[in-house]
Protein backbone atom coordinates (compact mmCIF):
# COMPACT_ATOMS: atom_id res chain seq x y z
CA UNK A 1 0.00 0.00 0.00
CA UNK A 2 1.52 3.39 -1.00
CA UNK A 3 2.91 5.58 1.74
CA UNK A 4 0.83 8.55 0.60
CA UNK A 5 -2.27 6.32 0.89
CA UNK A 6 -1.40 5.50 4.51
CA UNK A 7 -0.87 9.15 5.40
CA UNK A 8 -3.57 10.89 3.33
CA UNK A 9 -6.68 12.01 5.16
CA UNK A 10 -8.85 11.90 2.04
CA UNK A 11 -11.91 13.23 3.90
CA UNK A 12 -13.66 16.22 2.32
CA UNK A 13 -16.69 16.36 4.63
CA UNK A 14 -16.46 17.33 8.32
CA UNK A 15 -16.04 14.24 10.58
CA UNK A 16 -18.63 15.70 12.93
CA UNK A 17 -21.17 15.57 10.09
CA UNK A 18 -20.20 11.98 9.37
CA UNK A 19 -20.62 10.96 12.99
CA UNK A 20 -23.95 12.79 13.20
CA UNK A 21 -25.20 10.83 10.20
CA UNK A 22 -24.03 7.58 11.75
CA UNK A 23 -25.79 8.34 15.01
CA UNK A 24 -28.94 9.33 13.14
CA UNK A 25 -28.91 6.05 11.25
CA UNK A 26 -28.40 4.12 14.48
CA UNK A 27 -31.26 5.82 16.28
CA UNK A 28 -33.55 5.67 13.26
CA UNK A 29 -34.38 9.40 13.27
CA UNK A 30 -32.75 12.80 12.74
CA UNK A 31 -32.06 15.00 15.74
CA UNK A 32 -35.08 17.17 16.36
CA UNK A 33 -34.93 20.95 16.17
CA UNK A 34 -36.43 23.09 18.95
CA UNK A 35 -40.11 24.03 18.37
CA UNK A 36 -42.26 26.77 19.77
CA UNK A 37 -44.09 25.80 22.98
CA UNK A 38 -47.52 25.70 21.35
CA UNK A 39 -46.40 23.02 18.86
CA UNK A 40 -44.80 20.59 21.32
CA UNK A 41 -47.98 18.60 21.93
CA UNK A 42 -48.71 18.23 18.23
CA UNK A 43 -45.16 17.04 17.60
CA UNK A 44 -45.43 14.50 20.41
CA UNK A 45 -48.72 13.15 19.01
CA UNK A 46 -47.19 12.81 15.53
CA UNK A 47 -44.17 11.00 16.93
CA UNK A 48 -46.36 8.61 18.87
CA UNK A 49 -48.44 7.70 15.82
CA UNK A 50 -45.47 7.27 13.45
CA UNK A 51 -44.29 3.68 12.80
CA UNK A 52 -41.04 2.70 14.48
CA UNK A 53 -38.23 1.97 12.00
CA UNK A 54 -35.24 0.33 13.61
CA UNK A 55 -31.83 0.65 12.00
CA UNK A 56 -30.27 -2.55 10.70
CA UNK A 57 -26.95 -1.37 12.08
CA UNK A 58 -25.77 -3.44 15.03
CA UNK A 59 -23.32 -2.30 17.65
CA UNK A 60 -20.20 -3.92 16.08
CA UNK A 61 -20.98 -2.36 12.71
CA UNK A 62 -21.60 1.03 14.28
CA UNK A 63 -18.28 0.77 16.09
CA UNK A 64 -16.50 -0.33 12.88
CA UNK A 65 -17.85 2.63 10.91
CA UNK A 66 -17.01 4.99 13.72
CA UNK A 67 -13.43 3.70 13.91
CA UNK A 68 -13.03 3.94 10.12
CA UNK A 69 -14.16 7.57 10.03
CA UNK A 70 -12.01 8.48 13.02
CA UNK A 71 -8.92 6.85 11.44
CA UNK A 72 -9.60 8.82 8.30
CA UNK A 73 -9.90 12.00 10.34
CA UNK A 74 -6.48 11.42 11.89
CA UNK A 75 -4.81 10.87 8.53
CA UNK A 76 -4.74 7.07 8.54
CA UNK A 77 -6.41 6.62 5.17
CA UNK A 78 -5.00 3.12 4.71
CA UNK A 79 -6.44 1.88 8.00
CA UNK A 80 -9.77 3.56 7.28
CA UNK A 81 -9.83 1.91 3.86
CA UNK A 82 -9.31 -1.58 5.35
CA UNK A 83 -11.85 -1.11 8.14
CA UNK A 84 -14.57 0.36 5.90
CA UNK A 85 -13.94 -2.14 3.08
CA UNK A 86 -14.48 -4.98 5.56
CA UNK A 87 -17.72 -3.32 6.66
CA UNK A 88 -18.84 -2.93 3.04
CA UNK A 89 -18.17 -6.60 2.35
CA UNK A 90 -20.13 -7.69 5.42
CA UNK A 91 -23.12 -5.46 4.71
CA UNK A 92 -23.00 -5.49 0.87
CA UNK A 93 -23.84 -1.78 1.13
CA UNK A 94 -23.18 -0.13 -2.26
CA UNK A 95 -22.90 3.38 -0.84
CA UNK A 96 -20.24 2.14 1.55
CA UNK A 97 -18.29 0.58 -1.34
CA UNK A 98 -18.41 3.94 -3.13
CA UNK A 99 -17.11 5.60 0.05
CA UNK A 100 -14.16 3.19 0.21
CA UNK A 101 -13.30 3.71 -3.48
CA UNK A 102 -13.47 7.46 -3.00
CA UNK A 103 -11.04 7.24 -0.04
CA UNK A 104 -8.56 5.34 -2.21
CA UNK A 105 -8.91 7.71 -5.17
CA UNK A 106 -8.44 10.79 -3.01
CA UNK A 107 -5.25 9.19 -1.69
CA UNK A 108 -4.14 8.47 -5.29
CA UNK A 109 -4.13 4.74 -4.59
CA UNK A 110 -5.53 3.40 -7.86
CA UNK A 111 -4.82 -0.27 -7.22
CA UNK A 112 -6.65 -0.14 -3.88
CA UNK A 113 -9.61 1.61 -5.55
CA UNK A 114 -9.71 -1.19 -8.13
CA UNK A 115 -9.55 -3.85 -5.39
CA UNK A 116 -12.52 -2.23 -3.68
CA UNK A 117 -14.45 -2.09 -6.96
CA UNK A 118 -13.78 -5.78 -7.54
CA UNK A 119 -14.90 -6.57 -4.01
CA UNK A 120 -18.08 -4.63 -4.75
CA UNK A 121 -18.64 -6.71 -7.91
CA UNK A 122 -18.10 -9.94 -5.97
CA UNK A 123 -20.45 -8.86 -3.19
CA UNK A 124 -23.20 -7.46 -5.45
CA UNK A 125 -22.76 -9.22 -8.82
CA UNK A 126 -26.01 -7.73 -10.19
CA UNK A 127 -24.87 -4.14 -9.60
CA UNK A 128 -24.51 -2.12 -12.81
CA UNK A 129 -22.58 0.56 -10.93
CA UNK A 130 -20.04 -1.95 -9.64
CA UNK A 131 -19.31 -3.19 -13.16
CA UNK A 132 -19.09 0.38 -14.51
CA UNK A 133 -16.72 1.48 -11.76
CA UNK A 134 -14.45 -1.51 -12.36
CA UNK A 135 -14.25 -0.77 -16.09
CA UNK A 136 -13.55 2.93 -15.50
CA UNK A 137 -10.76 2.14 -13.06
CA UNK A 138 -9.19 -0.42 -15.39
CA UNK A 139 -9.19 2.20 -18.15
CA UNK A 140 -7.71 4.78 -15.80
CA UNK A 141 -4.97 2.37 -14.73
CA UNK A 142 -4.20 1.35 -18.34
CA UNK A 143 -5.08 -2.31 -17.88
CA UNK A 144 -7.12 -2.98 -21.04
CA UNK A 145 -6.42 -6.71 -21.03
CA UNK A 146 -8.61 -7.09 -17.92
CA UNK A 147 -11.61 -5.14 -19.24
CA UNK A 148 -13.33 -7.78 -21.37
CA UNK A 149 -14.74 -9.79 -18.47
CA UNK A 150 -16.41 -6.92 -16.51
CA UNK A 151 -17.60 -5.40 -19.79
CA UNK A 152 -19.25 -8.67 -20.78
CA UNK A 153 -20.93 -8.81 -17.38
CA UNK A 154 -22.10 -5.23 -17.75
CA UNK A 155 -23.51 -5.94 -21.21
CA UNK A 156 -25.44 -8.93 -19.82
CA UNK A 157 -26.92 -6.80 -16.99
CA UNK A 158 -27.80 -3.85 -19.26
CA UNK A 159 -31.33 -3.89 -20.78
CA UNK A 160 -31.26 -4.57 -24.52
CA UNK A 161 -32.42 -1.07 -25.64
CA UNK A 162 -29.60 0.56 -23.64
CA UNK A 163 -26.76 -1.59 -24.94
CA UNK A 164 -25.97 0.51 -28.06
CA UNK A 165 -25.48 3.57 -25.85
CA UNK A 166 -23.22 1.57 -23.55
CA UNK A 167 -21.06 0.50 -26.49
CA UNK A 168 -21.00 4.05 -27.89
CA UNK A 169 -19.42 5.30 -24.65
CA UNK A 170 -16.32 3.09 -25.00
CA UNK A 171 -14.22 5.20 -27.43
CA UNK A 172 -14.51 8.24 -25.16
CA UNK A 173 -13.48 6.13 -22.18
CA UNK A 174 -10.33 4.98 -23.96
CA UNK A 175 -9.52 7.99 -26.14
CA UNK A 176 -6.45 8.81 -24.01
CA UNK A 177 -5.34 5.25 -23.45
CA UNK A 178 -1.56 4.85 -23.36
CA UNK A 179 -1.73 1.66 -25.43
CA UNK A 180 -4.64 1.92 -27.87
CA UNK A 181 -3.56 -1.20 -29.76
CA UNK A 182 -4.07 -3.27 -26.61
CA UNK A 183 -7.48 -1.68 -26.05
CA UNK A 184 -8.49 -2.59 -29.59
CA UNK A 185 -7.21 -6.17 -29.27
CA UNK A 186 -8.89 -6.68 -25.87
CA UNK A 187 -12.31 -5.40 -26.90
CA UNK A 188 -12.46 -6.82 -30.43
CA UNK A 189 -13.86 -10.28 -29.48
CA UNK A 190 -16.71 -8.76 -27.48
CA UNK A 191 -17.46 -6.18 -30.19
CA UNK A 192 -17.44 -8.85 -32.89
CA UNK A 193 -19.98 -10.80 -30.84
CA UNK A 194 -22.11 -7.65 -30.43
CA UNK A 195 -21.90 -7.01 -34.18
CA UNK A 196 -23.61 -10.38 -34.76
CA UNK A 197 -26.63 -9.25 -32.74
CA UNK A 198 -29.18 -7.16 -34.70
CA UNK A 199 -29.82 -4.77 -31.81
CA UNK A 200 -26.16 -3.86 -31.30
CA UNK A 201 -24.68 -4.44 -34.77
CA UNK A 202 -24.46 -0.79 -35.85
CA UNK A 203 -23.08 0.46 -32.53
CA UNK A 204 -20.54 -2.37 -32.34
CA UNK A 205 -19.26 -1.72 -35.87
CA UNK A 206 -18.94 2.01 -35.17
CA UNK A 207 -17.08 1.44 -31.91
CA UNK A 208 -14.79 -1.19 -33.36
CA UNK A 209 -13.93 1.08 -36.29
CA UNK A 210 -13.26 4.00 -33.96
CA UNK A 211 -11.01 1.93 -31.69
CA UNK A 212 -9.15 0.59 -34.73
CA UNK A 213 -8.59 4.14 -35.92
CA UNK A 214 -7.34 5.20 -32.48
CA UNK A 215 -4.97 2.22 -32.54
CA UNK A 216 -3.59 3.18 -35.95
CA UNK A 217 -5.05 0.03 -37.52
CA UNK A 218 -6.33 1.99 -40.50
CA UNK A 219 -6.87 -0.98 -42.83
CA UNK A 220 -9.22 -2.61 -40.32
CA UNK A 221 -10.85 0.75 -39.58
CA UNK A 222 -11.58 1.25 -43.28
CA UNK A 223 -13.08 -2.22 -43.68
CA UNK A 224 -15.29 -1.73 -40.63
CA UNK A 225 -16.33 1.70 -41.88
CA UNK A 226 -17.43 0.16 -45.16
CA UNK A 227 -19.51 -2.41 -43.26
CA UNK A 228 -21.00 0.36 -41.14
CA UNK A 229 -21.90 2.47 -44.20
CA UNK A 230 -23.71 -0.52 -45.66
CA UNK A 231 -25.45 -1.44 -42.40
CA UNK A 232 -26.64 2.10 -41.57
CA UNK A 233 -26.65 4.33 -44.68
CA UNK A 234 -28.93 6.83 -42.95
CA UNK A 235 -26.45 7.61 -40.14
CA UNK A 236 -23.42 9.94 -40.20
CA UNK A 237 -21.09 7.72 -38.16
CA UNK A 238 -19.50 6.04 -41.18
CA UNK A 239 -19.02 9.37 -42.96
CA UNK A 240 -17.26 10.89 -39.96
CA UNK A 241 -14.92 7.91 -39.83
CA UNK A 242 -14.30 8.10 -43.57
CA UNK A 243 -13.39 11.79 -43.30
CA UNK A 244 -10.87 11.01 -40.58
CA UNK A 245 -9.43 8.12 -42.60
CA UNK A 246 -8.94 10.17 -45.78
CA UNK A 247 -5.43 11.44 -44.94
CA UNK A 248 -4.03 7.93 -44.47
CA UNK A 249 -6.50 5.78 -46.43
CA UNK A 250 -7.44 7.63 -49.65
CA UNK A 251 -9.87 4.80 -50.52
CA UNK A 252 -12.18 6.08 -47.78
CA UNK A 253 -13.03 9.06 -49.97
CA UNK A 254 -15.12 6.82 -52.23
CA UNK A 255 -17.55 6.25 -49.35
CA UNK A 256 -18.10 9.99 -49.04
CA UNK A 257 -18.56 10.66 -52.73
CA UNK A 258 -21.00 7.73 -52.99
CA UNK A 259 -23.07 9.14 -50.11
CA UNK A 260 -23.10 12.61 -51.71
CA UNK A 261 -24.27 11.11 -54.99
CA UNK A 262 -27.11 9.41 -53.13
CA UNK A 263 -27.83 12.49 -50.98
CA UNK A 264 -26.83 15.55 -53.05
CA UNK A 265 -28.61 17.90 -50.60
CA UNK A 266 -26.57 16.68 -47.63
CA UNK A 267 -24.81 20.02 -47.16
CA UNK A 268 -23.43 19.17 -43.72
CA UNK A 269 -21.49 16.27 -45.23
CA UNK A 270 -20.49 18.35 -48.26
CA UNK A 271 -19.08 21.08 -46.02
CA UNK A 272 -17.13 18.53 -43.98
CA UNK A 273 -15.83 16.91 -47.17
CA UNK A 274 -14.79 20.30 -48.53
CA UNK A 275 -12.84 21.03 -45.34
CA UNK A 276 -11.10 17.64 -45.58
CA UNK A 277 -10.11 18.40 -49.18
CA UNK A 278 -8.81 21.82 -48.15
CA UNK A 279 -6.70 20.24 -45.38
CA UNK A 280 -5.25 17.90 -48.02
CA UNK A 281 -4.24 20.98 -50.10
CA UNK A 282 -6.72 20.00 -52.81
CA UNK A 283 -7.93 23.55 -53.14
CA UNK A 284 -9.71 23.36 -56.49
CA UNK A 285 -11.74 20.30 -55.48
CA UNK A 286 -12.56 21.81 -52.09
CA UNK A 287 -13.72 25.03 -53.75
CA UNK A 288 -16.01 22.97 -56.00
CA UNK A 289 -17.76 21.46 -52.97
CA UNK A 290 -18.19 24.79 -51.20
CA UNK A 291 -19.43 26.38 -54.41
CA UNK A 292 -22.08 23.68 -54.68
CA UNK A 293 -23.28 24.50 -51.17
CA UNK A 294 -23.52 28.22 -51.97
CA UNK A 295 -25.61 27.38 -55.03
CA UNK A 296 -28.02 25.02 -53.28
CA UNK A 297 -28.07 26.74 -49.89
CA UNK A 298 -26.93 30.37 -50.33
CA UNK A 299 -27.80 31.28 -46.73
CA UNK A 300 -24.96 29.10 -45.44
CA UNK A 301 -22.41 31.73 -44.42
CA UNK A 302 -19.64 29.22 -43.63
CA UNK A 303 -19.64 27.98 -47.23
CA UNK A 304 -19.12 31.51 -48.59
CA UNK A 305 -16.21 32.11 -46.22
CA UNK A 306 -14.52 28.81 -47.09
CA UNK A 307 -15.03 29.44 -50.80
CA UNK A 308 -13.54 32.93 -50.49
CA UNK A 309 -10.51 31.57 -48.65
CA UNK A 310 -9.84 28.94 -51.32
CA UNK A 311 -10.41 31.26 -54.26
CA UNK A 312 -7.87 33.63 -52.70
CA UNK A 313 -5.41 30.76 -52.30
CA UNK A 314 -5.95 29.85 -55.96
CA UNK A 315 -5.33 33.50 -56.89
CA UNK A 316 -8.86 33.95 -58.22
CA UNK A 317 -9.05 37.44 -56.76
CA UNK A 318 -12.43 38.52 -58.18
CA UNK A 319 -14.11 35.25 -57.23
CA UNK A 320 -12.62 35.54 -53.74
CA UNK A 321 -13.98 39.08 -53.34
CA UNK A 322 -17.45 38.01 -54.47
CA UNK A 323 -17.57 35.12 -52.00
CA UNK A 324 -16.22 37.16 -49.07
CA UNK A 325 -18.68 39.99 -49.68
CA UNK A 326 -21.53 37.47 -49.72
CA UNK A 327 -20.19 36.11 -46.45
CA UNK A 328 -20.17 39.55 -44.84
CA UNK A 329 -23.77 40.10 -45.91
CA UNK A 330 -24.80 37.02 -43.98
CA UNK A 331 -23.05 37.87 -40.73
CA UNK A 332 -25.72 39.09 -38.28
CA UNK A 333 -25.44 42.69 -37.12
CA UNK A 334 -26.59 41.78 -33.63
CA UNK A 335 -25.50 38.74 -31.68
CA UNK A 336 -27.43 36.73 -29.13
CA UNK A 337 -24.70 36.94 -26.48
CA UNK A 338 -21.21 38.27 -25.83
CA UNK A 339 -19.44 35.18 -27.16
CA UNK A 340 -21.37 35.33 -30.42
CA UNK A 341 -20.63 39.05 -30.73
CA UNK A 342 -16.90 38.39 -30.27
CA UNK A 343 -16.99 35.61 -32.88
CA UNK A 344 -18.78 37.89 -35.39
CA UNK A 345 -16.22 40.64 -34.83
CA UNK A 346 -13.36 38.20 -35.39
CA UNK A 347 -15.03 36.94 -38.55
CA UNK A 348 -15.41 40.43 -39.98
CA UNK A 349 -11.79 41.29 -39.21
CA UNK A 350 -10.57 38.15 -40.99
CA UNK A 351 -12.79 38.82 -44.02
CA UNK A 352 -11.52 42.41 -44.30
CA UNK A 353 -7.91 41.20 -44.21
CA UNK A 354 -8.63 38.71 -46.96
CA UNK A 355 -10.45 41.31 -49.06
CA UNK A 356 -7.37 43.53 -48.73
CA UNK A 357 -5.22 40.66 -50.01
CA UNK A 358 -7.59 40.00 -52.91
CA UNK A 359 -7.53 43.65 -53.93
CA UNK A 360 -3.73 43.59 -53.80
CA UNK A 361 -3.70 40.51 -56.04
CA UNK A 362 -5.78 42.48 -58.55
CA UNK A 363 -3.34 45.36 -58.33
CA UNK A 364 -5.89 47.71 -56.77
CA UNK A 365 -3.70 49.02 -53.96
CA UNK A 366 -6.13 51.79 -53.02
CA UNK A 367 -8.91 49.26 -52.36
CA UNK A 368 -6.45 47.09 -50.47
CA UNK A 369 -5.57 50.02 -48.21
CA UNK A 370 -9.25 50.76 -47.69
CA UNK A 371 -10.06 47.25 -46.49
CA UNK A 372 -6.95 47.14 -44.32
CA UNK A 373 -7.96 50.39 -42.62
CA UNK A 374 -11.05 48.65 -41.21
CA UNK A 375 -9.00 46.02 -39.34
CA UNK A 376 -8.19 46.34 -35.64
CA UNK A 377 -4.42 46.63 -36.04
CA UNK A 378 -3.67 46.11 -32.37
CA UNK A 379 -5.54 42.82 -32.17
CA UNK A 380 -4.11 41.45 -35.45
CA UNK A 381 -0.80 43.19 -35.37
CA UNK A 382 1.43 40.81 -37.30
CA UNK A 383 -1.15 40.13 -40.02
CA UNK A 384 -1.96 43.79 -40.57
CA UNK A 385 1.69 44.86 -40.48
CA UNK A 386 2.55 42.23 -43.05
CA UNK A 387 -0.25 43.33 -45.36
CA UNK A 388 0.82 46.95 -44.93
CA UNK A 389 4.43 46.04 -45.60
CA UNK A 390 3.39 44.10 -48.70
CA UNK A 391 1.51 47.15 -50.01
CA UNK A 392 4.56 49.31 -49.40
CA UNK A 393 6.76 46.81 -51.27
CA UNK A 394 4.33 46.86 -54.20
CA UNK A 395 4.87 50.62 -54.33
CA UNK A 396 8.65 50.29 -54.43
CA UNK A 397 9.12 50.87 -50.70
CA UNK A 398 10.50 47.46 -49.74
CA UNK A 399 12.90 48.73 -47.08
CA UNK A 400 10.16 50.77 -45.46
CA UNK A 401 8.03 47.65 -45.36
CA UNK A 402 10.86 45.69 -43.77
CA UNK A 403 11.29 48.34 -41.07
CA UNK A 404 7.58 48.09 -40.34
CA UNK A 405 7.92 44.36 -39.67
CA UNK A 406 11.20 44.72 -37.79
CA UNK A 407 9.47 47.10 -35.36
CA UNK A 408 7.09 44.39 -34.20
CA UNK A 409 7.58 43.43 -30.51
CA UNK A 410 9.18 40.14 -29.44
CA UNK A 411 7.51 38.96 -26.26
CA UNK A 412 7.90 35.23 -27.00
CA UNK A 413 9.65 32.77 -29.30
CA UNK A 414 6.46 32.60 -31.32
CA UNK A 415 6.57 36.36 -31.86
CA UNK A 416 10.19 36.07 -33.04
CA UNK A 417 9.27 33.25 -35.38
CA UNK A 418 6.22 35.01 -36.82
CA UNK A 419 7.90 38.36 -37.49
CA UNK A 420 11.00 36.81 -39.11
CA UNK A 421 8.89 34.52 -41.30
CA UNK A 422 6.82 37.54 -42.32
CA UNK A 423 9.93 39.51 -43.26
CA UNK A 424 11.39 36.59 -45.22
CA UNK A 425 8.10 36.15 -47.08
CA UNK A 426 8.09 39.84 -47.98
CA UNK A 427 11.59 39.45 -49.43
CA UNK A 428 10.65 36.24 -51.25
CA UNK A 429 7.68 37.96 -52.88
CA UNK A 430 10.15 40.62 -54.07
CA UNK A 431 12.53 37.85 -55.26
CA UNK A 432 15.23 39.10 -52.90
CA UNK A 433 16.60 35.62 -52.30
CA UNK A 434 19.84 36.55 -50.56
CA UNK A 435 18.17 38.93 -48.13
CA UNK A 436 15.45 36.35 -47.41
CA UNK A 437 18.13 33.71 -46.77
CA UNK A 438 19.91 36.00 -44.31
CA UNK A 439 16.71 36.69 -42.38
CA UNK A 440 15.94 32.97 -42.15
CA UNK A 441 19.51 32.15 -41.14
CA UNK A 442 19.18 34.61 -38.24
CA UNK A 443 15.85 33.07 -37.32
CA UNK A 444 17.32 29.54 -37.33
CA UNK A 445 20.24 30.69 -35.20
CA UNK A 446 17.81 32.05 -32.61
CA UNK A 447 15.50 29.04 -32.76
CA UNK A 448 17.78 26.16 -33.83
CA UNK A 449 15.25 23.39 -33.14
CA UNK A 450 12.51 24.90 -35.32
CA UNK A 451 12.18 22.51 -38.27
CA UNK A 452 9.93 24.85 -40.26
CA UNK A 453 12.45 27.71 -40.13
CA UNK A 454 15.22 25.36 -41.31
CA UNK A 455 12.97 24.17 -44.13
CA UNK A 456 12.33 27.74 -45.29
CA UNK A 457 16.05 28.46 -45.10
CA UNK A 458 16.75 25.41 -47.28
CA UNK A 459 14.38 26.74 -49.92
CA UNK A 460 16.30 30.01 -50.08
CA UNK A 461 19.61 28.12 -50.24
CA UNK A 462 18.25 26.35 -53.34
CA UNK A 463 17.27 29.68 -54.90
CA UNK A 464 20.86 30.82 -54.39
CA UNK A 465 22.25 27.65 -55.98
CA UNK A 466 23.68 26.32 -52.70
CA UNK A 467 22.43 22.82 -53.32
CA UNK A 468 24.71 21.00 -50.90
CA UNK A 469 23.62 23.36 -48.13
CA UNK A 470 19.98 22.88 -49.10
CA UNK A 471 20.36 19.10 -48.86
CA UNK A 472 22.12 19.31 -45.48
CA UNK A 473 19.39 21.59 -44.10
CA UNK A 474 16.61 19.31 -45.34
CA UNK A 475 18.25 16.26 -43.78
CA UNK A 476 18.46 18.17 -40.51
CA UNK A 477 14.73 18.90 -40.80
CA UNK A 478 14.05 15.17 -41.30
CA UNK A 479 16.05 14.41 -38.16
CA UNK A 480 14.25 17.02 -36.07
CA UNK A 481 10.83 16.16 -37.45
CA UNK A 482 10.73 12.76 -39.20
CA UNK A 483 7.14 13.26 -40.38
CA UNK A 484 7.95 16.58 -42.14
CA UNK A 485 6.69 15.48 -45.56
CA UNK A 486 7.58 18.80 -47.21
CA UNK A 487 11.28 18.10 -46.53
CA UNK A 488 11.20 14.68 -48.23
CA UNK A 489 9.26 16.13 -51.12
CA UNK A 490 11.57 19.13 -51.53
CA UNK A 491 14.73 17.03 -51.67
CA UNK A 492 13.15 14.41 -53.94
CA UNK A 493 11.86 17.07 -56.32
CA UNK A 494 15.21 18.88 -56.37
CA UNK A 495 17.00 15.69 -57.37
CA UNK A 496 14.38 14.92 -60.03
CA UNK A 497 14.48 18.45 -61.40
CA UNK A 498 18.27 18.20 -61.78
CA UNK A 499 17.85 14.70 -63.29
CA UNK A 500 20.23 13.13 -60.77
CA UNK A 501 19.91 10.25 -58.27
CA UNK A 502 16.45 9.50 -59.64
CA UNK A 503 15.90 6.28 -57.70
CA UNK A 504 16.67 8.11 -54.46
CA UNK A 505 14.42 10.95 -55.55
CA UNK A 506 11.56 8.53 -56.08
CA UNK A 507 12.10 6.93 -52.66
CA UNK A 508 12.00 10.34 -50.97
CA UNK A 509 8.77 11.30 -52.72
CA UNK A 510 7.17 7.95 -51.89
CA UNK A 511 8.08 8.67 -48.26
CA UNK A 512 6.44 12.08 -48.49
CA UNK A 513 3.28 10.55 -49.96
CA UNK A 514 3.14 8.05 -47.09
CA UNK A 515 2.60 11.02 -44.76
CA UNK A 516 0.37 13.03 -47.10
CA UNK A 517 -1.36 10.85 -49.73
CA UNK A 518 -2.79 12.76 -52.70
CA UNK A 519 -1.24 16.08 -51.61
CA UNK A 520 -1.10 17.83 -55.04
CA UNK A 521 2.43 19.25 -54.84
CA UNK A 522 3.82 15.85 -53.82
CA UNK A 523 1.82 14.12 -56.57
CA UNK A 524 3.30 16.70 -58.95
CA UNK A 525 6.80 15.76 -57.73
CA UNK A 526 6.05 12.08 -58.30
CA UNK A 527 4.81 12.87 -61.81
CA UNK A 528 7.98 14.85 -62.48
CA UNK A 529 10.29 12.04 -61.33
CA UNK A 530 8.34 9.53 -63.45
CA UNK A 531 8.85 11.86 -66.41
CA UNK A 532 12.57 12.00 -65.72
CA UNK A 533 12.62 8.19 -65.51
CA UNK A 534 10.98 8.00 -68.95
CA UNK A 535 7.55 6.87 -67.80
CA UNK A 536 5.54 9.45 -69.74
CA UNK A 537 2.10 7.84 -69.43
CA UNK A 538 2.38 7.53 -65.65
CA UNK A 539 3.78 11.04 -65.48
CA UNK A 540 0.78 12.40 -67.40
CA UNK A 541 -1.67 10.58 -65.14
CA UNK A 542 -0.08 11.93 -61.97
CA UNK A 543 0.38 15.47 -63.25
CA UNK A 544 -3.20 15.66 -64.47
CA UNK A 545 -4.33 14.45 -61.03
CA UNK A 546 -2.22 17.09 -59.30
CA UNK A 547 -3.38 19.90 -61.61
CA UNK A 548 -7.04 18.97 -61.23
CA UNK A 549 -6.68 19.09 -57.43
CA UNK A 550 -4.69 22.33 -57.42
CA UNK A 551 -4.25 24.28 -60.66
CA UNK A 552 -1.00 25.89 -59.53
CA UNK A 553 1.22 27.62 -62.09
CA UNK A 554 4.27 25.47 -61.36
CA UNK A 555 2.20 22.29 -61.73
CA UNK A 556 0.88 23.78 -64.97
CA UNK A 557 4.47 24.21 -66.17
CA UNK A 558 5.25 20.54 -65.51
CA UNK A 559 2.01 19.18 -66.97
CA UNK A 560 2.39 21.40 -70.02
CA UNK A 561 5.92 20.14 -70.67
CA UNK A 562 4.94 16.47 -70.51
CA UNK A 563 1.91 17.16 -72.76
CA UNK A 564 4.15 19.03 -75.19
CA UNK A 565 6.73 16.27 -75.57
CA UNK A 566 3.94 13.66 -75.72
CA UNK A 567 2.39 15.33 -78.78
CA UNK A 568 -0.52 17.10 -77.06
CA UNK A 569 0.68 20.60 -77.86
CA UNK A 570 -2.70 22.32 -78.01
CA UNK A 571 -3.59 21.02 -74.57
CA UNK A 572 -0.13 22.04 -73.33
CA UNK A 573 -0.68 25.64 -74.52
CA UNK A 574 -4.09 25.75 -72.82
CA UNK A 575 -2.61 24.59 -69.52
CA UNK A 576 0.28 27.06 -69.78
CA UNK A 577 -2.11 29.90 -70.60
CA UNK A 578 -4.15 29.08 -67.50
CA UNK A 579 -0.98 29.09 -65.41
CA UNK A 580 0.22 32.37 -66.87
CA UNK A 581 -3.13 34.00 -66.15
CA UNK A 582 -2.71 33.14 -62.47
CA UNK A 583 0.96 34.03 -62.09
CA UNK A 584 2.58 35.56 -65.18
CA UNK A 585 5.94 36.05 -63.37
CA UNK A 586 6.30 32.41 -62.35
CA UNK A 587 9.91 31.37 -62.89
CA UNK A 588 9.21 27.69 -63.57
CA UNK A 589 6.72 28.55 -66.30
CA UNK A 590 9.01 31.11 -67.95
CA UNK A 591 11.97 28.71 -67.89
CA UNK A 592 9.87 25.89 -69.36
CA UNK A 593 8.56 28.02 -72.23
CA UNK A 594 12.06 29.32 -73.02
CA UNK A 595 13.66 25.87 -72.93
CA UNK A 596 11.00 24.31 -75.18
CA UNK A 597 10.86 27.45 -77.39
CA UNK A 598 7.09 27.36 -77.04
CA UNK A 599 4.81 30.29 -77.73
CA UNK A 600 1.50 30.83 -75.96
TrEMBL record:
Origin superkingdom: Bacteria
Leader sequence segment: 1-34
Pfam families according to UniProt: TPR_16, TPR_8
Cited InterPro entries: TMTC_O-mannosyl-trnsfr, TPR-like_helical_dom_sf, TPR_rpt
UniProt keyword list: Signal
Metal-binding found in the keyword field: no
Protein name as catalogued: Tetratricopeptide repeat protein
Taxon lineage: Bacteria, Pseudomonadati, Pseudomonadota, Betaproteobacteria, Burkholderiales
Amino acid sequence: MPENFRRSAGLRRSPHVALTLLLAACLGQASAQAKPDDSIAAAQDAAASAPVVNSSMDAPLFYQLLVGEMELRTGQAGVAYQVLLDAARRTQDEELFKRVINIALQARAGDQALSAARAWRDSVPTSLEAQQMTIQLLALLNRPAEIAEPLSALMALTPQPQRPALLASLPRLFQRAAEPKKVYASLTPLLQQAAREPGTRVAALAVQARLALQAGETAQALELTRELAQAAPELDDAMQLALELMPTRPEAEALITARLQAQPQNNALRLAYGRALARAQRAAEAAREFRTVTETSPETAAAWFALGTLELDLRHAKAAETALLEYLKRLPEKAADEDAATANTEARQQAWLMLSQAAEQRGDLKAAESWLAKVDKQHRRIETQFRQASLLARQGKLEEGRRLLQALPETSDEDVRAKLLAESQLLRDAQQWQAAYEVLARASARLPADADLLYEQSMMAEKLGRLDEMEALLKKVMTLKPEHHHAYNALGYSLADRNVRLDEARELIVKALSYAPNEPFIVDSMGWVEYRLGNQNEALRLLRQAYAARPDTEIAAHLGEVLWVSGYQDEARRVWQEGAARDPKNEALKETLARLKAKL
